């Protein structure tokens, strides 16, 4: 932790970056995001098991971009999110310094995002074990059982869009649910509208989700919606051999056409 | 009417619930499910939670549901017909076991839906609503009712307020004509009270700030750097607004197929980026700090000024629901101490 | 209907459609229920919620003056979902209308004064109601000057009425188009509205200025009027914040503690000076 604070302080003092995004102690024992511009305030930074929010969500925020060069505390999910955002031209790689956090919580030295790519390449990727176990159970169900499970869960959604807001990859200024010419999916939070919304969100994140689980954590109604995108992350891997957030040049599984794609009905 | 006090024991309480349900009321009561406690319609008496501190959602659903039919329309060769909603089908609802913060929030909703223009759909639901409140004997660090002129035993908004006493029975304060009608219809379930004091069992919620000082500072704090600093973390979801017992922002949407359909009122949030976007592309509240400021200002400056109520009952739901720890109490305490130029 | 419901609109039939400019149309609407029409009273400045069943609701001013009974007019440009749906309608089709909502131009207080109307582009419609209202009571006002500008000659709306105003000796009409927007036949001014106001330099004494237009035009016109000596309380404008309900509940049109739908849409510059710039 001292290494992290020291490194953040140096980056701000040397004006290598104008802002450090990290975690601090929040209220009631929670950890939360902190935005530091003053080198003297880097002592607020913490890193422990409570630090679960995917901070990459802030990189595309208007007020944050305004700061220019930014250092960000980056456990694996944040590293991968940064790579997705760079590959999708949402952030400039020269504007990001990743303060990498290893699996043991130690500070990693990442002089560039290319080094982040190399680091990620060495780590076995997949869904968190606890989530994969639930997915395995769901996958063992019949389609009718699964449908009933999801209808029951999604019915109570009230469309606060916390799932969307928490996701670094949901950066569209106008989300498809808000496009109304034509109205692609129903806006109201009735069972059909909810089902349509979560299917849409899932499909738009297929091959782009880094399995951080923040959508599910953000849901105030405890709907396990992260399982939807996590399932698709596995599907995309099995079908296209692609894992999101492994390269700054990654091609998105569902928006790239290759002549040798096995779905030859596309053309 | 003069409030009356009676006693009801735990077994009789379940009987009262079943009796109200059997009388045709839709019962809205808290249940522990999906690892959280939340209100739902018509649970069994045995499912009802009595030991939670706070439910995830408020009880505004009963009068301002997340989707409300405003009217239906039908098209034919002769033109368009509008079909008003059938007000006779609005159900009688009993909010069962609502904390005093939730019960108190109804008066704010009444004000919003009735200033100048009377919202008949809201009023039709409200008129058929009874509130059985439950004083709080537990609170947590997010609760701050005492800072907004309420307390864990406030009677405001309840028709009957129950308070769980140390001996396992409940003190029932019968506060309104409607409450009296319920008590009278179930008179055998109640016994006489004997000067029981509810104050000694109520949760201790310390006053954390002076809301009039917050309001005063906000009046001069529009341009304060506070908003930028305290809202960088906000990701702009609607969780706080949707769980809030007083937030009433809404959207109006049409749904139709082949010319037949309905117009709906749906929850919305001033925190969403597109909420105020003009068709021209101009947006009066372009960035999140402006939108967060609007939320706080609306509750603690604009509503006190225009509607003479504080748009907050201190239930703490927004702080609990926020995925990024935008803690309203922390901010209000900071706003009370904010240095503003007069 | 058994119990009234503030969300249920009046049903209006489209009596005629005028193509004003590219994608800009005026509907003349009449009440399907005559009795509703007779009881519908409004004043200049007020707005309504217009809707297509299934296509949604949108907010526009009432563009015809209360002095012309028997019909209501609205003018809109096809841009969003609702205006697209409206554009598909034909004469005889049905439009929903809720209203009237909002405050008014205090035209009775303006009696005996000069009136200076300044409008840009599609913002002439919100002003057309008050312009006709005061023209229809012409004897009550002194000089009436209208400065109206659009991007191009083609974008000027109400072309027939502009001609009528131009020909009237008791109205001083100045039309302008942005540089590059003129045609060889164009005889009006060329230049942005604030520049033309500066050039025309209307007298501030005993004059009320009413300004409607895109935010950028308003922003640059106010200083010109100030320079000419107009007091803030004699400069009026309308705010066009996004709305849904129109009656102070949905929360969209707040500017500080003010609701544009209830306290506006008409505001004086001195009122705006005391409001946060969230419009």
Query: What is the count of DSSP helices of chain A, taking H or I runs of 4+ residues?
Result: 10
Output the radius of gyration of chain A.
19 Å
Q: Measured on Cα atoms, how large is the radius of gyration of chain B?
A: 22 Å
Of all chain pairs, the largest interface belongs to:
B-C, 53 and 43 residues
Quick one: biggest sheet of chain B?
Answer: 8 strands, mixed
Unreliable spans of chain B are none
- Tell me the major beta sheet of chain A: 4 strands, mixed
Instruction: Tell the overall outline of chain B.
Output: globular
Question: What structural category characterises the helix and strand content of chain B?
Answer: alpha+beta
Structurally, the number of domains of chain A stands at 2
Question: If you average the pLDDT of chain B, what whole number results?
Answer: 95
SSE series of chain B: EHEEEEEHHEEEHEHHHEEHHH
Secondary-structure element series of chain A: HEEHEHEHHHHHHH
How much helicity do the residues of chain A have?
25-40%
The termini of chain B sit apart by: 45 Å
**How many H/I helical runs of chain B?**
10
Classify the oligomer: heterotrimer
| Computed structural class of chain A | alpha/beta
User: Numbering strands along the chain, what is their spatial order in the largest sheet of chain B?
Assistant: 3-2-6-7-8-9-1-10
In percent terms, what proportion of residues of chain B is strand? 15-25%
Name the features.
heterotrimer; A: 267 residues; alpha/beta; 2 domains; four-stranded mixed sheet; globular; C: 279 residues; Elongation Factor Tu (Ef-tu), domain 3; Rossmann fold; seven-stranded mixed sheet; six-stranded antiparallel sheet; 7 helices
Can you put this structure into words, describing what you see?
- The complex is a heterotrimer of chains A (267), B (342) and C (279).
- Chain A is an alpha/beta fold and 267 residues long.
- Chain A folds into two domains: 2-121; 129-240, no CATH class.
- Chain A contains ten helices and four strands.
- In chain A, helix 8 (191-205) packs across helix 10 (226-240).
- The radius of gyration of chain A is 19 Å and the shape is globular.
- The model of chain A has no long low-confidence stretch (mean pLDDT 94).
- Chain B is an alpha+beta fold and 342 residues long.
- Chain B folds into two domains: 4-192, no CATH class; 211-336, no CATH class.
- Chain B is built from ten helices and twelve strands.
- Chain B has helices at residues 10-22, 100-112, 120-127, 177-185, 211-219, 226-231, 239-243, 288-306, 317-321, 328-336; strands at residues 4-8, 26-33, 36-41, 67-76, 79-84, 93-98, 129-134, 160-164, 170-174, 190-192, 250-257, 260-267.
- An eight-stranded mixed beta sheet of chain B has the order 3-2-6-7-8-9-1-10. A four-stranded antiparallel beta sheet of chain B has the order 5-4-12-11, with no helix packed on it.
- In chain B, strand 8 (160-164) and strand 9 form a beta hairpin.
- In chain B, helix 5 (211-219) crosses helix 8 (288-306) and helix 5 crosses helix 10 (328-336).
- Chain B is globular and about 65 Å long.
- By secondary structure, chain C is of the alpha/beta class.
- Chain C folds into two domains: 10-101, Beta Barrel (Elongation Factor Tu (Ef-tu), domain 3), CATH 2.40.30.10; 114-238, Rossmann fold (3-Layer(aba) Sandwich).
- Chain C is 22% helix and 30% strand.
- Chain C has seven helices and 15 strands.
- In chain C, strand 11 (207-212), helix 6 (215-227) and strand 12 (235-238) form a beta-alpha-beta unit.
- In chain C, helix 5 (193-200) packs parallel to helix 6 (215-227).
- Chains in contact: A-B, A-C, B-C.
- The A-B interface holds A 26-28, 30, 32-35, 53, 57-58, 61-64, 156, 158-162, 164-166, 173-174, 178, 186-190, 214, 217-218, 220-223 and B 34-36, 38, 56-57, 66-67, 141-142, 228, 232-233, 235-239, 241-243, 251, 253, 255, 264, 266-267, 269, 272-274, 286-289, 319, 321, 323-325, 327, 329-330.
